[in-house]
Amino acid sequence: MGLTIKISDIWKEYDGNPVLKDCSVSFEKSGIYVLMGHNGSGKSTFLRICSLLEEPEKGEVNYFSGQELMKKDMGLKRRITLVLPGVGIFNATVSSNMAYGLRIRGLDNKEISERVDRYLDLLGLFHKREQNALTLSSGERQRLGIARAMVIEPDILFLDEPTASVDLGNSEIIEEMILNMKKKGQPTVIITTHDVSQAHRLADSLLTLKEGRIVSYE
Amino acid sequence: MTTIIDSFGKAFFLILNLDRELLGIIFLSIKVSGTALVVATLTGLPIGALLGFKKFSLKGLIISILNTFMGLPPVVVGLFVYLLLSRSGPLGFMGLLYSPTAMIIAQTILAFPIVTSLSHSAIVNVDPVIRQAAMTLGATPSQVSFAIVSEARYGIMSGIIAGFGRVMAEVGAILIVGGNIAGYTRVMTTTIALETDKGNFELALALGIILLTISLIINAVLHLVQKKGMVRKNRWV
Q1: ipTM of predicted assembly, 2 dp
Q2: Which one of A89, B7, B118, B185 has the largest count of C-beta atoms within 10 Å of its C-beta?
Q3: Which of B137, B230, B233 sits opposite A81 (nearest CB)?
């Protein structure tokens, strides 16, 4: 059964400066949620808290499977994933990067091989699978980061500004990858962007953050 | 210049004739320094990683001490180990003074701060986003630590190579605790010191050339392992 998220009154501050102020929202349907806002509006922090990478000072992030409240344990954390703006590519081949999440989950080599090849093909990086991932262009690295998250087939995929530092060509490829996920209805994608036109192209639901508060949800 | 050329000739002559005494000295040098390096790595790498991953009081002091000890004078280490192992010392009952084991202990003390400090430095210099990436992909805390150590592998390897350079070239400590006993604790550096004292410069220089050649070969092998390790690491099975 798919996961739903309920966020209640989260408050987060850094060095006494509030970044998120009593944000509450629920992500109950599958689809693509786009979180919009200017730089510094708190989008990335919101995503990091939703994906359980950080804890809020106040408020709660709860995951449900049907009506059942999930424990925030490794089992839940392995059903969600976040692609950071810097991606965090390992100094290893493209294949090795792709396989990381599968290997730590203990999948057998045959399945790892099959999934990695399938997603690399989808990504258009199959021919670079034995190349060191650090030699890829920034756009290719971003695509690899998304594919590395997709290959583990999470229930919820968080993408923090996935096209912020890539060229137009790579941006289009990434948008196509996201739209393909939308067609399949899996996984639920929660994405931040400050590009209004991109937000409207991708979104099933659109949220706007302003100065740490959710000001609209449509 | 003639002495240097003669020394090269003598070095080749000694090697080609497989002089048993010389081979014994070379093997003991490699055994003592190699064992010291392995022990220093097996203890220093986990401690370096612990210092990199954990926050605790006195951590800064420990790192400062390690950094200071990277430049420990070998004769001071030799004296310290001598006092520990001498008959009247706390470990005198073990009867280790003037043995290869005493030399290994002294060289381990010299290599340990280098391996530990450079491993720690390599680990803390890994981009923080690597840690977060591993976490977001579902890694457990130990898997996250392993991913960071894996990213730091070239820096760690540099620390091991630096440690090897330190112990292989060292003479002061092992001379004090080993005693330079022919056929038992005599290694290349102590032999060079002895032959120089005797005015036998050709043999001393020949041994120096052999020592440099061995260091070059071992460093080249370590470098190849480093490169091969990268290729192996790059495969995902």
Answers
A1: 0.91
A2: B118
A3: B137
